[in-house]
Amino acid sequence: MATATKEPRGAVPHPDLTQLDQVNRDVLKTLGKPGLVWWLMLGLCIAGIGMLGVSWGIQIVQGIGVTGLTSPVGWGVYITTFVFWVGIAHSGTLISAILFLFRAPWRQSIYRAAEAMTVFAVMTAGLFPLIHVGRVWHAYWLIPYPNSRFLWPNFRSPLVWDVFAVTTYFTVSATFFYLGTIPDLAAARDAANGFRKKLYKVISLGWRGTDREWHHFGKAYIFLAALATPLVLSVHSVVSWDFAVSIVPGWHATIFAPYFVAGAIFSGVAMVITLTVPIRKVFGLEAYLTTKHYDAMAKLCLLTSMIVFYAYLSEFFMAWYSGEEVERAAFWARLFGHYWWATWIMLVCNGLVPIMLWFKRVRYSIPALFTISIFVNIGMWFERYVIIVTSLHHEYEPFAWGVYRPSMVEMGIMVGSFAWFGFWFLLFTRLIPVVAIAELKEVIPTPMRGAAPAHAGGEGGEG
Amino acid sequence: MSETKGILASYEYVDSAVNAIEKLRAGGLKKITAYMPYPEHLIEDALGYDQSPVRVWTLAGGLCGAAGGFAFTAFTSMDWPLVTGGKPILSMPAYVVISFEMMVLFGALSTIIGLFINSRLPYLKPMVVYDPEFSGGRFGVYITAPPERLDEARGILQGQDPVELREDSAGVAHAS
Amino acid sequence: MSDGLKRREFLKVLGVSGAGAGMVGCSTESVEKLMPYVVPPEEITPGVATWYASVCGECEAGCGMWVRTREGRVVKVEGNPDHPVSGGALCSRGHSSVQGLYNPDRFTGPMARQNGELQPISWDEAEQRLADGLAAAGQHLTLTGFAGPSMMTLMESFARATGGGVVRFDPLADAPLREAGRIAFGRNVVPWYDIEEAEMLVSFGADFLESWLSPVRDARAFSRMSGVDERGSKGRFVFVGSRLSLTGQNADEWLPIQPGSESLVALAMANVISGAGAGAGPYRDIVNAYTPENVSEATGIPAENIRELAIQFAEGPSLALGPGVAGQHRNATAANLAVAVLNSVAGNVGRTLHYSAPQLNAPAFGYSGVERVMQLIGQGVVGAVMIHGSNPIYALPASSGFRAAFESVPFKVSFASSPDETTALCDLVLPDRHFLESWGDSAVRPGSWAIQQPAMRPVPHFDTRQTGDVLLSVDSLMGQDLGAATFHDHLQSRWQTVAASTGTADFEVFWQEALKSGVVELGGSQTGVAEQLRQPDRALVFDPPDFDGPGDLHLMVYPSSRFGHGSQNTNRPWLLELPDPVSKITWHSWVEMHPDRAAAMGLRNGDMVILSTDNGSVELPVWTYPGIRENVVAVPMGGGHEGAGRFSDGNGVNPLDLLPAESEALSGGLVHFATKVTVTPTGERRALATISGSDVQSNRPITPAVALSALTAEADHAEEEDGNGPLQELQGVGGFVPVETEGRPQDFPLEGAQHGEYGDPETPRWAMTIDLDKCTGCSACVTACQSENNVAWVGESQVTMGRDMGWIRLERYYEAVDASHAGPLDVRFMPMICQHCGNAPCEPVCPVYATYHTPDGINTQVYNRCVGTRYCLNNCPYKVRVYNWYTYTDEEPVREGLGHAPEPMNWAFNPDVTVRENGIMEKCSFCIHRIRGAQDRAAVEGSVIQDGEIIPACQQSCPAEAIVFGNIRDTRSRVAQSVESARVYRVLDELINTQPAVSYLKKVTFHDVESGEH
């Protein structure tokens, strides 16, 4: 008789899972025929993408002036949304790579969705540098290619760092994501038939799960994880240096890199919650995405929220403590100036609301978490808005102070970017198993006839 | 050697597969391919794997990327020296960022190449010796042997009462 | 990025200039070879500028100018250094004349009214009609604005020959000033003011830096007089008036008097100086009556302040000016007389102002002249009225009823070259040439005459004829003979006499020389005669006039420093978008109100209010201004045009509608300052199209000042200030090892950053010094820069958003001063341009090297390389980078109301400077094209560039001579010496170590300044 003998490290996150192939059945059924809701949402997203396209078209034809941007506020909603999406991307890599290295027992069932989110978020973020430049038809000049005059980009510019960091990040996270899906695509292939079978056969690269494949796969996976971990930290540091290396009061702070990384993880985890809660409902994956997982993510949220809030406070303190007139004025304006409301939205959503996560009852209530995650998403968007806009509108030269009001075009493109993201994510839920089948099997009891050997257990593909 | 034949057994339990493999290897039958729905170390251990060469690929790629990144930035700024912000022509601290990103990028890409080469992916030949159950819950052991030892092998596999035992004439299933 | 240079046009123009740009106008006219200033026409080569000397026709001051042409097109005007008035400088209006020349709304040819509409006709027909019309009319009148002496005489002799009269009309007539001169000294002239000679200056509301008499000349004289010199001595300037104009903002002290009480202050000062009137000659009793104590209540100025002022005034050579338009009230002549008396008792007559040097321009009648005209029309004796160089329908208060009178005239002719409110009523329009296309002359100062010569073939879009020629041909059509076929002959025949007076035998030689230099000095002007006061022959009332009308706020309608009286030449984007030097508002009108008064009425900047008097009412946004008395509101002239062109129509309101049509009793001048208004909030708001983000410096060292007393102390103090250790920069070993630097402009580039040419000690570092003690904030540099560098205008909506494109942002900050004995305001001007930082924050952040540092120290912007990330704008602490949010230079605006350059306005683009498109960052380039041009010339000639050989447009046009440019590494250069001054500082440098190449010299004040501002 079958006896569950293997105890993974930490508590068993999936008490009601015993059969290996049950995982295939449960997960692969999500690839079945999409329902009406899915089609509606897809249609909505396509409409949103249309809006993005039209708005961008108007901007290209008429000029960047259709935005509300002006002197002295040269950056606004576009860069805000860029940083927001890059931030969203980070938790995906965090969960898939960093938690993998740290052997967190709760990552298997959520990391696939998180990684997908990473890839699509970077794809979305990548649009904005293009959208915000004045002459997008010359944007390729940022890429180092041997042109006729052998004029290269200026590698001292953080914007060029961005180009390298973001493209690298996209390539690596996409590779990492794809690598992880190969065995599950194979599983999908075996379950499917007809055209889908052919399709999955090709994209699963003919994976058969032989010992040799698994052996090297595990190695490659762990090395990629090891590379992705410093990468994820570096990318958002680089993004933060877009601001920190400038001399703008409110930007020019050494705390920015860690502050931004923490903020990125904060917003990213919140977004994972926002995305997985409906998936869990729609596909009936409660057995896989258990409240234990949400509890863990909520704790991560709480931690990062405290780091971020500490960063806010230390910024204000340093502004006061420096005694620097310009610095002080900038932060005073941030709290009580023209954009006071944005600042207070940021403080409430990112600092106060997450305090509720101290309570176990909240951490275990899916609706509560969902609501809080929405607040955090809003708050983190406003954090970037506050950092960028309020700092710029009130800096060194009083006579040049000015105010920026976002235009409809900017709003259209910002909202459209969510549609663009949603579009890819919806496709993902139907084409790729949203839960990592193979890896999940590692944490459910190994089917044994007799007693397990002492050295059994462990995670991942390590030899 | 005269034509070899192969036998494919699929098991429900890990330890059955492990025992089968260990017995076969003990019997000197080493041409084994195991199939698993997930990386099961008991089986890998039974097959006696050592370190994977993929790590070398990672290291080499990373080093090349880092060196290349720094060399490139340094070269381009010396190639057409332009002073910006009163900074040195060779503003090394800035170039560290680029070379770091390049290290990660090339490291990752060469890791993938290493993986593909070492595990013979992509494998687009028809999957003769395969059972869709292997990606579900079953564990497979495939052995090829010269005809004279075929019964011995069949005996060992049979001994762990497989769910299914089938013979294939080709004996091509080994990735190598 | 097209400058609208169509190839065929180009060839056409080129052909002409090749054949000699002298071809004036149509072939029917005589051919005259022009003498370009630099090279003779036949040597004109494409790409090389040709200069012509001429005279500015924008205002009566008649500044001599050089006109820069390229391929036969005028591209820029600059002051003629040889000219006694301009002295090489020019004001914004002068610069904008290029947009007048190429104005797309000019009449395309002669027009005649057929069934209610003005329809184009041929010139022959037009002239025939004029001849017939005048013949039929019997009596006819010519109402003319300012015109040169030759044109004036021609009009008069034409009128005489054809049975008519000429009325010289000027909305801002100086009648009271001349009448006062007549009463006081028997000299009905505008006196010749020698501001430079004075050490103490008192202006009774005379805005001599912006609109009064000759702003450019006076600005130069004023800055020389009031600028602190190396000996540390500085002339003092006190402004007496109820509103601080731009001129007032330049004063060291402000006496905010009650409206209309100038005469009291002047007489009280005279009283003190002359020992209770003892020395006041025939005015003893009058002066005696007005002791400081008596007037202090009525003027609102404490007696001791007036006393103090009088004593200072009596000390050195001093000068009292005015009153200007502020004194244009019901006792205007008396006010002017009081100032004359003050000057007389202080012994200034013949020393700092001269009545014995009459101006040669025909004096203008005041409003009384117009009243006479309306009277004649009313009697029906006038059959035709010809309008020349003026726009009376706009310039006269609606209450005058001139419109009705004018409409009743059977035959109405205008010579205006572009449509305006008056031409809209005319039956026949014979468009005159723009002054840059036509002949003329001016005699602006005793003993100096200037020639105005056409600098280019008439703009082909407009079929125009010079009015002088029209008059002559019409004259012959009417069977008369004025002894000249063309106006050019007439001009030459007049100059024959001038030539004779110089004793030149060969007129040809004299004529060519005159054309070359543009100005002829005859000498023989007698000055220095100290006229004695005469017994007044008229009854005088010196007490403040009564202001009628509702409300308790005195309405001051003042000439705009951008448009003057604003009845003409307002259809120019450069001027409309030039921030008003005082309010920093563009495009629209506003009403100035004291902040306390506004607060009491619950009004903020931008609240709409209705101003109403017995004569009318207008709706305006409020602009609160601490430089105005609480009981006064002020509105600038020049707004509210209708049918005057696509740009100026519908901007602001015409405040003259509020005024009574009334001439001052003694002089007949129009009364501008006579009514009170009610201010009624409408509850509406509008965003002001201003460039000002804040009026105070918020404790930042942007425009620090130094008290005159502390100036010498400052020098020693400067040494001590460097107590905080040597500056260190990460320069060594690729940015890892600190290198010491003093951060002086000469130090660029720092060791470590040196590479290739950058290390060459021979390369210059271009640098600039701006003396804030001299800068008057007049904004001439802004327009000059706009003209030189093809800086686009963007439109009102864009300016409101903060997208103005001016490369020079002339900032205006208020500093509060101890108001115990003066007005509470210390105004600081700061022409903020790209500082060309040695450590430019904008450079390293550009991803594509679109901005970088040239070996000669210029922070340069490569337009074609810019992709428009705007990072440099964010990272510029001075915010001097401006961005092309749209393409503002196409012939059609990208969107309604945006900047554009309709044909032929795009002819004004400077071929040496790229025209920018949407998405490009731009900024001050130190006029790099001029630098490279000079370097190329030097290379070709094998010569060395001398200090002062390269002059940026701003320095070139600065009337105050506040700007110095040069190579700071050359220790003998002016700029290198100027940074040795004790007053030198660099904006924000010590805060963020930008090492700017632009240094400023602190403003010097007579009052103490807080240490907070360094």
Description:
The complex is a heterotrimer of chains A (463), B (176) and C (1014). By secondary structure, chain A is mainly alpha-helical. Chain A contains 15 helices and no strands. In chain A, α2 (36-62) runs antiparallel to α14 (408-431). The two termini of chain A are 29 Å apart. The relative contact order of chain A is 0.19. Residues 1-12 and 452-463 of chain A have low confidence and may be disordered. In chain B, α1 packs antiparallel against α5. Chain B is rod-shaped, with a radius of gyration of 25 Å. Chain B has helices at 14-26, 41-47, 54-79, 92-118, 150-159, and strands spanning 5-11, 32-35, 139-145, 164-168. In chain C, 26% of the residues lie in helices and 18% in strands. Chain C contains 29 helices and 39 strands. In chain C, the strands form 12 sheets. Chain C has a 7-stranded mixed β-sheet, sandwiched between helices. A 6-stranded mixed β-sheet of chain C has the order 21-23-22-25-20-24. The model of chain C is unreliable at 1-40 and 718-723 (pLDDT under 50). At the A-C interface, α5 and α10 of A face β30, α25 and β34 of C.
Mean pLDDT of chain C: 86
- In the predicted model, the low-confidence regions of chain C spanning at least 5 consecutive residues are 1-40, 718-723
**Which oligomeric form is depicted?**
heterotrimer
Q: Into which percentage range does the β-strand content of chain A fall?
A: under 5%
Helix percentage of chain A = 55-70%
Q: What structural class do you assign from the helix and strand content of chain C? A: alpha/beta
Topology pattern of chain A, helix = H, strand = E: HHHHHHHHHHHHHHH
DSSP strand count of chain A: 0
**Count of DSSP helices of chain C?**
29
Key features?
heterotrimer, A: 463 residues, 15 helices, 0% strand, B: alpha+beta, rod-shaped
What is shown here, in short?
The complex is a heterotrimer of chains A (463), B (176) and C (1014). Chain A is mainly α.
SSE map:
The complex is a heterotrimer of chains A (463), B (176) and C (1014).
Chain A: H1 20-28, H2 36-62, H3 77-101, H4 108-132, H5 158-191, H6 195-203, H7 211-244, H8 256-283, H9 291-322, H10 325-336, H11 340-352, H12 360-363, H13 366-392, H14 408-431, H15 437-442
Chain B: E1 5-11, H1 14-26, E2 32-35, H2 41-47, H3 54-79, H4 92-118, E3 139-145, H5 150-159, E4 164-168
Antiparallel strand pairs in B: 1-3, 1-4, 2-3
Chain C: H1 7-18, E1 50-55, E2 64-70, E3 73-79, H2 92-101, E4 111-114, E5 117-120, H3 123-137, E6 139-144, H4 149-162, E7 164-168, H5 175-185, E8 192-193, E9 200-203, H6 215-226, E10 236-240, H7 246-249, E11 253-255, H8 262-273, H9 284-289, H10 292-299, H11 303-315, E12 318-321, H12 332-345, E13 353-354, H13 367-378, E14 382-388, H14 392-395, H15 402-407, E15 411-414, E16 428-429, E17 440-445, E18 448-452, H16 467-477, H17 487-502, H18 507-517, E19 519-521, E20 553-558, H19 573-577, E21 591-593, H20 595-600, E22 607-612, E23 617-624, E24 632-636, E25 676-685, E26 705-707, H21 711-721, E27 727-731, H22 732-735, E28 737-741, E29 766-771, H23 780-788, H24 796-801, E30 809-816, E31 825-832, E32 851-853, E33 859-861, H25 871-875, E34 882-883, E35 921-922, H26 928-941, H27 953-957, E36 963-967, H28 974-978, E37 984-985, H29 989-992, E38 998-1001, E39 1003-1005
Parallel strand pairs in C: 6-7, 6-14, 9-10, 9-12, 10-11, 14-15, 15-16, 20-24, 21-23, 26-39, 29-38
Antiparallel strand pairs in C: 1-2, 2-3, 4-5, 4-16, 8-13, 17-18, 18-19, 20-25, 22-23, 22-25, 27-28, 29-36, 30-31, 32-33, 34-35, 37-38
Helix pairs in contact in C: 2-23, 3-16, 4-16, 5-12, 8-10, 8-11, 8-12, 10-11
